[in-house]
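Structure first, sequence second, as always.
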């Protein structure tokens, strides 16, 4: 993996009644540009708890895939049954078992200090390392 990727994680406390629905949703999304892979996992303590982990080239690719008409009809209704919690993660470190690859965060330096309706700088560089004291 040479570039950082985006992980979309959807946890289901009570899986959709139609188990094929998750696979169909992924099949629709997998045709979109930027889709890399998907895994469905089942909790080892309870079969009712499942997780869908999708890897995308970027957050933009994921959002664009969800905006497709076919995705709105098939994937969005299934994904909306997931636990309502943050589920988007940018990859900041990856290992192939031999070496760790570190990536800069794509978050702007003021990501958690500027709210909607507030002015920010015309361009804010991404966070490249932890600030020093």
């Amino acid at each position: 993996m040479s570039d950082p990727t985006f992980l979309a994680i959807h946890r289901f406390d009570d899986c959709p009644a139609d188990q094929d629905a998750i696979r169909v949703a992924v099949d629709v999304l997998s045709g979109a540009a930027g889709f890399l892979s998907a895994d469905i996992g089942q909790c080892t303590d309870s079969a009712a708890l499942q997780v869908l982990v999708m890897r995308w080239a970027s957050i933009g690719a994921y959002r664009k895939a969800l905006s497709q008409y076919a995705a709105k009809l098939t994937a969005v209704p299934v994904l909306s049954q997931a636990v309502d919690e943050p589920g988007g993660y940018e990859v900041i470190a990856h290992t192939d078992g031999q070496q760790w690859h570190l990536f800069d965060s794509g978050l702007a330096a003021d990501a958690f200090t500027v709210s909607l309706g507030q002015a920010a700088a015309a361009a804010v560089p991404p966070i490249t390392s932890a600030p020093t004291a």
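Margin note: The two ends are 33 Å apart (CA to CA).
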